[in-house]
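Example record

One chain of 134 residues, shown exactly as stored in the release files.
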Amino acid sequence: MTARRKPMSATKMIKAISKTRLLLAAMVVMALLLPATAHAAAPGITGPTFNLTAQAAYISQPDGAMIYSWGYGCRVGFAPTGFLPSAITTGTCPTMQIPGPTLIVTEGQTVTVRLTNNLPNPAGNTSILFPGFQ
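Predicted structure tokens for this chain:
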């Protein structure tokens, strides 16, 4: 013998829906009150001394194509002690990247940047632009 349930009355249905909505609203409020744990970071190399090189290399594109380009990176065989790895560089200071590496320094420090020009002779001279400085 199976037990049969009585159909829920309209009043009980409305109360159940109201309780569900109230529970959902309480959960949303609790989620908003929890502290957000977001972290921001700029992958780059820390200073105050940087030994960079300008050189040619092939860089891969999202479609798998390789493009010959000129860019900036760390001198071959030199990885700064404060290098912060990123997904692109896989934990080693790249010898060439576009744009060049982000230089992370502490305000008030004297910064030294040494640039070695390893570009092909037809490229001529090269220079570095430090945005944000006058």
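Notes: The first helix runs from residue 10 to 33.
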